[in-house]
Amino acid sequence: MKVKIALLATTALLATAGSAEAFKWHMSYGQAKNASKELAKELCDGVSECTGYGVGQCQRRSPSRFDCLIGLFSPGTEPGEEIQCDVVLHWGVNRGGAITLKNRGPFHCHVA
């Protein structure tokens, strides 16, 4: 009986520790949105034809992952035409607890 109680107590302790550890890796909407904005600005600054950028919605995929949409804008071939290139960014949390870009999808460009 004492062995069962000790086993239950150990299991309860490990379950509590696991919950606290999981909370440590939680990512907020604001963190993902801000990281997307900073990356969009950096990408736009690196391309001479880029005239602007925008950050769309971010969707939570797990407690430690968000997918965010960004768009980069450049002039089109016709006067008054604008090209918009969109990409989905997959943000996550690394082992150190810092927000990191895990992956990004392909750019999809169209006349806006």
Task: Please outline the helices and strands.
Blueprint: H1 2-24, H2 29-45, E1 52-62, E2 65-75, E3 82-93, E4 99-104, E5 108-111
Antiparallel strand pairs: 1-2, 2-3, 3-4, 3-5
Notes on the protein architecture:
This protein has 112 residues and is of the alpha+beta class. The chain contains 2 helices and 5 strands, in the order H-H-E-E-E-E-E. The chain has helices at 2-24, 29-45, and strands at 52-62, 65-75, 82-93, 99-104, 108-111. Strands 1, 2, 3, 4 and 5 form a 5-stranded antiparallel beta sheet that branches. Strand 1 and strand 2 (65-75) form a beta hairpin. The model is unreliable at 1-23 (pLDDT under 50).
Based on CA atoms alone, the radius of gyration comes out at: 21 Å
Helix content: 25-40%
Overall 3D shape: elongated
Distance between termini? 71 Å
Unreliable residue runs: 1-23
Number of helical regions: 2
Order of helices and strands: HHEEEEE
Q: Strand tally, please?
A: 5
Query: What is the arithmetic mean of pLDDT?
Result: 81
Going by helix content, strand content and strand pairing, the class is: alpha+beta
Beta-strand percent range: 35-45%
Largest sheet: 5 strands, antiparallel
Supply database-style keywords.
112 residues; alpha+beta; 5-stranded antiparallel beta sheet; 2 helices; 5 strands; disordered N terminus
Describe the structure in brief.
Helices cover 36% and strands 39% of the residues. It is an alpha+beta fold.
